[in-house]
Specification:
With about 500 residues, the protein is mostly helical. It has 21 helices and no strands. The relative contact order is 0.16.
């Protein structure tokens, strides 16, 4: 169907509906992008925290692992919460709470000094790691209040035949947010803080911390002066995004609407749910619908499992990019953050292409496009593995650009396809399950990278990511014959008479 055909039945309300559709898309994009400002700032701050306090890759790995698990469960829990509360309320509240946790993280060193009575030494560092862990876990739980409202709201405004294309545009939000966050925080790390480069004790401590974390002695000496010139800059990687999140929360709350009926518009055409209509939404009918469309849906579970492997690959690069580029490739922090940002920016283009290709080449079957994308991601990570250490920033960035172009397609399409397979009524729940497995993958990525990097070096890290990408591709291949969406399945669900009677009471 063409765009005009899809919305023709709306008659005179078609123009108003499309206006609101794009308003909802843009507002949720802005809101979700800002969630990444108060989330991906951590990856840029990590090198500075290591330099100043000697926090190891293993410690960061455990923090990332725990935070990712909490985030996954939070997405699942909030998938149910948004069915009972307004999506805009949940989303705006999540931004405010993320801002609070980021302010607390920025004060982490001060809190550690307050608790221990010292500002250096093993006791201080251990307490600092504990404070970081608690605040990151809190932040990750509140982060789970970002995606479920969007997963619930957007299928109410976008027709299934256009969901891949328009949701691909929407999915650029996290790439835009992450890229801007990395660049902005990279600027902060390179311009703010206190200059202590002339203080020998500080410089020597940084050299010791870097070499302990596997940096070559010569590189550590070279990098120490840069880090010493910006002591404490990492704190502003949390303060500044927190302020932005507060402003955005107000914007989201005022501008967002959950369903067309809230502004006097009808529901989307051709998205009926069979027996689950307004007269049959009893507790029993809903439970049966969810059981059939989510818990017993083979395609939903295959997408969710695939999401685990996609996130291991994506987060392996995104969370650790600034660190492995400075430690393994010898780039300065600004170059490392720009290179990591290039990975994200390429993801924007890749996401848009994946959405277009799904609707126009694969006839709405996004799982087939996901197979191609995972194959491409494995290829580019293989090329990156064999790049010489002195390949230079241009070639390094180009290869990561190729990997980013490929891996963000599945990351976006899985959420879109879950909305189609589970239908708009159960989209948030299906995406909640995907969130648990996806961020289990993100957590495993943190542990794998942290331990493998410390024990075997960064080369083995890249090899691990390649293997994971290939496994993810194989999982997605099993879906090749899956249908485009689950609306036919939903319409054929048979409800018992007692379900109808209960709803009438």
């Amino acid at each position: 169907m063409t765009k005009e055909d899809v919305y023709a039945s709306l008659g005179g309300q078609r123009k108003k509906f499309l206006h609101w559709q794009w308003r909802i898309i843009v507002i949720t994009m802005i809101g979700y992008a800002v969630f990444y400002f108060v989330r991906k700032n951590m990856s840029v701050a990590m090198p500075g925290i290591t330099a100043e306090y000697g926090v190891t890759n293993k410690s960061f790995g455990w923090i990332i692992f725990a935070g990712s698990l909490v985030y996954g469960f939070s997405r699942f829990i909030n998938g149910y919460v948004v069915d009972r509360l307004k999506g805009r309320v949940v989303m705006a509240g999540g931004l405010l709470l993320c801002a609070l946790s980021n302010f607390l993280f920025g004060y982490g060193a001060n809190l550690s000094a307050l608790f221990t009575g010292v500002n250096e030494g093993p006791d201080f560092v251990n307490m600092f790691i504990m404070v970081m862990g608690v605040t990151i876990i809190l932040n990750q739980y509140f982060q789970g209040m970002g995606y479920p409202p969007c997963a619930r709201i957007l299928p109410h405004w976008i027709h299934p035949s256009q969901l891949a294309t328009k949701m691909s545009i929407w999915n650029c939000s996290h790439s835009i947010g992450a890229a801007l966050a990395v660049v902005a925080c990279g600027y902060i790390m390179g311009t703010m803080g206190t200059d202590m480069s002339q203080t020998d004790g500080v410089v020597n401590t940084i050299i010791k911390n870097l070499t302990t974390n596997g940096v070559d002695q010569a590189k550590a000496v070279e990098q120490a002066a840069t880090y010493a010139a910006h002591i404490g800059a990492w704190k502003w990687c949390f303060y500044a995004p927190a302020c932005l999140a507060v402003v955005t929360a107000v914007f989201v709350f005022i501008g967002l609407r959950d369903e067309p009926k809230e502004v006097g518009l009808p529901d989307l055409p051709d998205t009926g749910l069979g027996g689950l209509n307004e007269n049959k939404k009893s507790a029993k009918a809903r439970k049966k619908f969810e059981m059939e469309m989510v818990w017993k849906n083979r395609w939903v579970w295959t997408f969710c499992i695939a999401n685990l492997f996609v996130y291991v690959v994506r987060m392996g690069v995104l969370d650790w990019g600034p660190k492995f580029l400075t430690e393994a490739r010898g780039l300065d922090i600004k170059s490392a953050t720009w290179t990591t940002a290039a990975f994200e920016i390429a993801g924007i283009v890749g996401t848009l292409f994946a959405g277009w290709a799904t609707d126009h080449i694969f006839k709405g079957k996004g799982h087939r496009m996901c197979v191609c994308c995972m194959a491409g991601a494995a290829l580019f990570m293989t090329i990156f593995r064999f790049l010489p250490a002195d390949a230079g920033i241009t070639l390094t960035a180009l290869v990561l650009v190729g990997a980013g172009f490929c891996i963000y397609g599945p990351q976006a399409l899985i959420g879109i396809e879950l909305g189609n397979q589970a239908t708009k009524e159960a989209s948030a729940r299906a995406n909640g399950i995907a969130g648990i497995l996806g961020y289990l993958g993100s957590g495993l990525s943190g542990l794998l990278v942290g331990y493998v990097a410390d024990a075997f070096g960064w080369t083995r890290v890249f090899e691990t990511i390649i293997v994971v990408a290939i496994i993810g591709m194989i999982v997605l291949i099993t879906m090749w014959a899956a249908p485009r969406d689950g609306y036919e399945r939903a319409a054929n669900i048979k409800y018992d008479d007692e379900d109808v009677e209960e709803a009438k009471l």
